[in-house]
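During the no-cost extension, the postdoctoral fellow (Dr. R.K.) reprocessed legacy sequence entries with the updated structure-token encoder. One reprocessed record is reproduced below for audit purposes.
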Amino acid sequence: MKILVINAGSSSMKYQLINMRDEALLAKGLVDRIGLDGSFIKHSKANGETVIKDHYMKDHTVAIKHVIDMLVSDAHGVIASCDEIIAVGHRVVHGGEKFSDAVIINEEVMDAIKDCIDIAPLHNPPNIVGIEACEAVMPGIPMVAVFDTSFHQTLPQEAYIYALPYEQYEKHRIRKYGFHGTSHKFIAQQAAEMLGKPIESLKIITCHLGNGSSITAVNGGRSVDTSMGFTPLQGLAMGTRSGTIDPAIVTFLMENEKLTVPEVNAMLNKKSGMLGISGVSSDFRDLDDAIAEGNQRAQLAIDVFCYQIKKTIGEYAAAMNGVDVVVFAGGVGENNVVVRNGALKNLEFLGIELDDEANDKARGVAGIITKPNSKTIVMVVPTNEELAIARETKKLVTLQKPFR
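Re-encoded structure tokens follow.
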């Protein structure tokens, strides 16, 4: 029972092949520079054996053909034929208000995903191209869409509505959607399982921290608030994104710096955040190195990031009338001890008693980093969005649940 997971970008495609009988990863890879000179495929088997092959791939359909060829090849393959793949799970960034769960893809679903292009112009088009490429290369194999936004469709109206004229919501569906939903759902469920408690009984704050970062309040297994909004720009300051700012800054910059809409958009999404404050890098590892050399702006960037995490944890504890568990995940959340320390500092009023030794050891491995008597448990739980997508895909293919 093998499922192929696809995450398609505009010129790249990540993939994993997972055996769902034991959830073992069989192979993973990246196809990069699709449609550009220098395109290549990097393919790794579960044993670590890796091969990189240069091929010109004019489009995603050709890229998928190379992925399949690699998976079934005598030298580097892990399956005998494509027939062993029972379904393909696709990461789709935006499902708007149409999807509150994963769905088997049909023509109606594709039309609905296309209808969301105007609110996700950078993400949904390549996701669509990836689906169409797989359908062309693997006809008859079920395709499943798993949406970043679907987990957050349980947000109450007071949490997702912006204080704009209501007509703008009715006309353009301008509201908080939230992102990273697949990860937030996965790590909340994993935390509950590790604690041996039903998720329905827990108030969990999940912190997905990486180059893109978001925090979610999960009450009884349901997302009730999340930091990203109409776009992934809202919320925490991130690697290159500004996060939440006074919206009047946008018009001020456009007027005083004579910036166009694309230019101010590029500034907020690609030149701000940790990179903008530090002037060094968007990579937290580079910031740590710069701090060790005495760079004060790099330190300020980390301080801003930690302060915003702390503030959001407090905000969501208030929203849920308490918190039982705080979970750190993502590349930064799982590995950066300094960030976890800074984010949890002065949260003793929430009943958090950090175990410094446990926190120091928790780098990329699951575990509890608070003391045994801590009223609120803090955990590190490595996320696995690909496995989460594969699980949703398996469930749907088994149930054959169509979109209505």
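Residues 188-385 form a domain with the Nucleotidyltransferase; domain 5 fold (CATH 3.30.420.40). The mean pLDDT is 95. The remaining legacy entries will be reprocessed before the final report is submitted.
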